[in-house]
Write a structure and sequence with these properties.
Blueprint lengths: L1 H24 L23 H11 L3 H8 L2 H12 L4 E3 L3 H11 L12 E4 L1 E2 L7 E9 L5 E10 L5 E6 L7 E6 L4 E7 L11 E6 L4 E7 L1 E2 L1
Parallel strand pairs: 1-8
Antiparallel strand pairs: 2-4, 2-11, 3-10, 4-5, 5-8, 6-7, 6-9, 9-10
Helix pairs in contact: 2-4
Length: about 220
């Protein structure tokens, strides 16, 4: 009986060893290499037109606005998505307001200073592509004049984004404060002398190339 059990165990071991040897010798466990050419008549897809178009668009300067006007909605959205993947940040302190802007203001006369601190919160367009968060303030500075400060700003990146003080959200009448310095962070913009803040009471993050709103904030007295 015991001899039969021993023979059975030995037989099982022989089978296991044999099966293992077979699989170890199998091509599944042997490194192989192959270099098949493309089938005749097959073509490798070139870079997507949107990528090439994006690079060309980036290389433009003032021509972007004209090019944007000639693009279809699908082309615009593709470029918007490309920009949305890129982020830039800046963190200008309050002290930099007095350092950089005060020098410009002290050499000017007749500036009026806002008596009230105006504030607003950004609201994005909410279409899944264009978005904006953060707060904005109109701050009087020493020597006269006002500065627009954007704090904790997070805006979907886009081509040719600018900061406007506008009478409405469609930028029908606005004061251009300059190109958005970064789509993330704290930043300061000098408000031109003589700007009527009670009239231009809406802050826009506006895409000049495509004439598209990304976000807006209504300025109100604190």
């Amino acid at each position: 009986m015991r001899r039969g059990i021993k023979l059975g165990i030995i037989g099982a071991i022989i089978i296991i060893v044999g099966v293992s040897a077979f699989y170890l010798a199998s091509p599944l466990f042997i490194s192989t290499e192959i270099d098949e050419p493309l089938p005749e008549g097959a073509e490798v897809p070139a870079a997507s037109p949107s990528s090439n178009q994006f690079q060309e668009f980036m290389a433009m300067s003032e021509e972007r606005i004209e090019a944007g006007n000639q693009m279809g909605e699908q082309e615009r959205n593709q470029i918007m998505l490309e920009f949305a993947r890129m982020n830039t940040s800046i963190d200008e302190s309050m002290a930099q307001i007095n350092q950089s802007l005060l020098e410009q203001q002290t050499s000017q006369t007749g500036n009026e200073t806002s008596d009230l601190l105006l504030t607003g919160s950004f609201v994005g367009v909410g279409d899944g592509i264009h978005d904006a968060q953060g707060i904005t303030k109109v701050i009087p500075i020493e020597g006269g004049g006002n500065v627009l400060r954007l704090e904790d700003l997070i805006v979907t990146n886009g081509p040719d984004l600018y900061v406007y003080l506008s009478t409405d959200k469609s930028a029908s009448d606005f004061v251009n404060l300059g190109r958005l310095k970064a789509n993330i962070g704290n930043q300061n913009y000098q408000i031109p002398e003589g700007t009527d803040i009670t009239k231009y009471d809406t802050v826009l993050i506006w895409c000049r190339a495509f004439s598209v709103l990304f976000g807006s904030a209504d300025l109100k007295s604190r």
